[in-house]
Amino acid sequence: MNKITPLLEGKKIIILGGGRGIGRATVTECLAQGAAVGCTWRTSQSAIKELADIASSEGKTFYDTQMDICDKASVDRGIDFLISSLGGIDVLINCTGITKDKAFPFLDPDSWDQVIQTNLTGAYYAVHKVLLPMVSNKGGAILNLGSVSAAAGVPGQANYAASKAGLTGLTKALSKELGSYHIRINSVAPGYVKTDMTAQMPEKLLAQAIDRIPLKRMAEPEEIAHVLAFLASDMASYINGQTITVDGGLL
Predict the structure, then answer these.
(1) Is 160 an annotated catalytic residue?
(2) Of residues 124, 160, 192, 238, which has the active-site annotation?
(3) What does pTM read for this prediction?
(4) Residue 105 sits in which domain range?
(5) What number of CA atoms fall less than 13 Å from residue 142's CA on the CB side?
(6) Does the structure show a pLDDT above 90 at 92?
C-alpha cells in the first residue's frame, strides 16, 4: 500500500500568534501535516513551551520567538530569527488579533488605535517583511485571519470590523500585485469560534448568536486550522485573492 504524503510535507511555515486559540490549533495542524513550523507569541510562553515539548517528543521541527506585532522592529527581528532557524519560508499564516468592543459613542481613540494597529498595521509589517524572501524563493503563500464581522458588521465592533475589512482589502490588492511573483494571498473569515474572545461574551448574547447559526454551534479552533492548512498547501495552488468564510452558514 502506498504511503499517503502529509499535506504540508517539506513546507517551512511561520505562524504569527500561535500560542492560543486558532493560532495554536494551526501550529498543531501544520506540524501534523509534515511542515517545519516557526511560531511567534507575545504573552503565552507556557502554552508555547507545551507545544515545543510535544513537537520535540514527536520528532517535529518547531521554533518559537516572542514578538510584538505592533512593533515593526520586533516583527523584523522575530521573522528574521524564524526564517534563519527554518532555513527559509514557504508560508506565512497571520493569526494575530485582538478585540476591544465598545458602543461607538464610547469608543475612545486608544481602543480604536490598538485594534487597528494589531489587526491591520501588524499584518502590513509582517507581510512586508516576508516578501523579499518569498520573491527570492520564487513563490510562497500568505494567509490572513479575517472575520465575518468585516462583512456582516457587529454592534460594538466598529474598530474590529474595520480592521478585518482592511485585511480583506489588503488580501485582494496584494493578490493582484504579487501573483506574478508566484505568491498567493488569501484570508479565512471565521464566524463564532470557541476561543478566549468568545469566552468573554455575555452568555445571553452568545446564546443568541449560536441560535442564528444554521449548524447551531460554534466552531472548534481545529475546524478553522484545517482550512488554513489546506490553503497553505499545494492542493490550493490556484486559489488566490479569496476570503473563505467558515461560519457554519451564519452569513
Answers:
(1) yes
(2) 160
(3) 0.94
(4) 12-246
(5) 32
(6) yes
